[in-house]
Amino acid sequence: xxxxxxxxxxxxxxxxxxxxxxxxxxxxxxxxxxxxxxxxxxxxxxxxxxxxxxxxxxxxxxxxxxxxxxxxxxxxxxxxxxxxxxxxxxxxxxxxxxxxxxxxxxxxxxxxxxxxxxxxxxxxxxxxxxxxxxxxxxxxxxxxxxxxxxxxxxxxxxxxxxxxxxxxxxxxxxxxxxxxxxxxxxxxxxxxxxxxxxxxxxxxxxxxxxxxxxxxxxxxxxxxxxxxxxxxxxxxxxxx
Length: 240
Hints:
Layout: H1 9-24, H2 34-41, H3 45-57, E1 61-64, E2 68-71, E3 76-79, H4 85-91, E4 96-107, H5 109-116, E5 123-133, E6 136-146, H6 162-170, E7 176-185, H7 188-194, E8 201-210, E9 216-225, E10 229-232
């Protein structure tokens, strides 16, 4: 007959802190001090520090020097699917919106022209928006569309989903996309727009969307706050 060993004190401490983070403490609430946790669980302060280090790496807590450890805002876990920002937020029970909307027709230039399969001198529609979830800035979005595909004034419809507007107004539906995700930092202007500290981490998601006829419909550069987003992938191993 075997008996189960009780969980290590460090595991008990972690479980206790996770319970606090999930069920009791609001975002930005302060956690108990390292000293009080060490005394409560009869462990060294080094053990407490290691558990907090792990929670910080997971994005569950953040530290302010001289003030303590605090509960992080919950992150939005985004799978890599061909969905719009509005669809993502609504699926999580959040209210999508837009701030600082601008819309102008400009020459494509070499980079955007190549992505959209048009000449550099061709006109494209450039849409810039700060996307929000429950009024909190989450993403700075630049979208470029071939002007010939989107005649007229699209700006009044840009508080909501661009993909829904393209489908309803022009019959344009994205069928597939090529997407690249890069780690980056926010420059001061980007940080201001997203209400985040300058040079804080971010994800740059670059997407080229195609319709069912294979036409490039959109080139999008979306900058997501690194403190509020994580990306989730499901990967498979081919049988040998």
